[in-house]
Amino acid sequence: MRPGLRFLAVSLVLLAGLRMQPAAAERVRVTPTFFGMHVEQQFYVGWPAAKFSTQRAWGVYPAITWDAVNPAPGTFAWAPLDRFVTDSLSRGVELVYVFGPVPLWASSRPTAACGEAPRGSCHAPDLSAWTEFVTQVTKRYKGRIKYWELWNEPDAKNFWGGTHPELVEMARRAYPIIKAAGGIVLSPSPQGKMGPAWMEGYLAAGGAPFADINAFHAYLYDAPEALLPLVAAYRSLFARYEIGQRPLWDTEHSWGEPDSPFGGDVDQQSAWLARFQILSVATGIDRSIWYGWHHDGWGTLFRKKTRTLLKTGVAYNQLYDWLVNTSLGPCRQTGSLYECPIVREDGSEARAVWSTGAETSIPAPAGYGRYRTIEGQTVVVPKDGSVPVGMKPVLLEATPVN
Q: Is residue 273 within 8 Å of 260, Cβ to Cβ?
């Protein structure tokens, strides 16, 4: 790269020459609501030392899912969900409630297997039971829970064993109930690289009208740059069904388990997280909800046994500071080098830079006198102007002229 390289106002170049949708190549404004989190045990571990404005109510203990709240016909155990909603709202976040799993008593196939989940819990519910629960829960939390996600990972056999038409019918019944309670509806959220194929079947079955926000889970099990063709596939699909104008939310993701690519150590994990968050902004994803704060083995940012903020947690907070209240993009790939320009509210400029190949060094562009690391360090560019660039992004910053 030559000193003073200028970013071209063109579409972000993806892997293998793939180009993004034109809308995602524009400069993107980043607000605090972009950052979201799953918090498994906030009453026992404490509130996260992380910055986020959206909390997804999934994987919570004590359980607040449909089967836990509605354990028998006409019976509602609201106390855990009441406590969760009150505590979370006191922290200033917006809540996303996720429907599922099916209570055994309401399941159409109560003895049928659901992978590792309890029998019956993934199969289509009795529709009167479903309608009653949606009515009761949205009525109770009207004005408090703002967002309602229609189902979690329906392409996974442990969460959904029914058909596309069955889930569409559930969405058709739930949508007007949620809207009448002032809620905003998220589509079901398929996961992984096969998610677009599942979503296409759902939309073909008639699911398009029954959501306000398009949701998915970007579990890539791959380098974070694999997000780019995945988002392009979703955008193309949604455009065909004339729902591409809706916000796009990634409501659950991380590098996965320790044996996943980039899951082997905290440096790889931190690099994955930082690159993924930057690219999520660049592709026009409106909200990005991390999984999870202290979930053992899945995207862990905080070690609950030792009460330790991990390098990954530090990286998450650094990315919040780098991105919030800025405008990012359009980004550019040159070989293995990725660069994303950032403009802050005060007009100052920065560039997030990383390499997907071997660690290298680049000359700092004219006027860029320091860089920041995802570990929170600020480094003055040496006299020779050389900046080391590797798998972890660095943030080059323009410095005032004396």
A: no
